[in-house]
Amino acid sequence: MERTLLIIKPDATERNLIGEIIRRIELAGFRIINLRYLRQTKSVAEEFYAVHKGKPFYDELCNYMSSGAIVPMVIEGEHAVAGIRELIGKTNPAEAHPGTIRADLAVSLTKNSVHASDSPENAVKEIKFYFPREEA
Ligand code: CMP
């Protein structure tokens, strides 16, 4: 069993897609074991995305991730990190395969509806970020 972090981003919460995204995650056989609904400040978004600091899209990304409600959640399942990455599709929705969350629901590279951890190591860190009391 493995755990990963997925965040439903402001473009998706705004368009009432929380249920649709959760439905796809559960239908794929994964279990949601913790979730929150929150709005974060820009400085919290900057801290979460610190690995992208200095990249041309960093400021826009952090403004966007503090522009509306987000739903971070802990997901558990066999090979959850790779499995959830597959389910959400490529970062740029224009390049994502049909049937993936981003291909079907996302708006643009920034408004790409969801984030998910890209490695088991990052999953542990990212889960701790939004769920400090969650066991790894
Ligand atoms: P996410 O998986 O949340 O990780 C970083 C985010 O930065 C990414 O999804 C995109 O929404 C956003 N982003 C904006 N521009 C780019 C870019 N050129 N390359 C990668 N990510 C980008």
Question: Can you walk me through this structure?
Answer:
With 136 residues, the chain is of the alpha+beta class. The mean pLDDT is 97. It has helices spanning 10-14, 18-27, 42-48, 58-65, 80-88, 101-105, 120-130; strands at 2-8, 31-35, 71-77, 114-116. The protein has one domain (2-39, 72-130): 2-Layer Sandwich (Alpha-Beta Plaits). Adenosine-3',5'-cyclic-monophosphate binds next to loops.
For the structure shown, list the relevant keywords.
136 residues; globular; binds adenosine-3',5'-cyclic-monophosphate; 7 helices; alpha+beta; Alpha-Beta Plaits
The gist of it:
The chain is an alpha+beta fold and 136 residues long.
Give the averaged pLDDT, no decimals.
97
Shape: globular
What is the CATH class name? Answer: Alpha Beta
Bound molecules: adenosine-3',5'-cyclic-monophosphate
User: What structural class do the secondary elements suggest?
Assistant: alpha+beta
Task: Name the CATH superfamily assignment.
Answer: Nucleoside diphosphate kinase-like domain
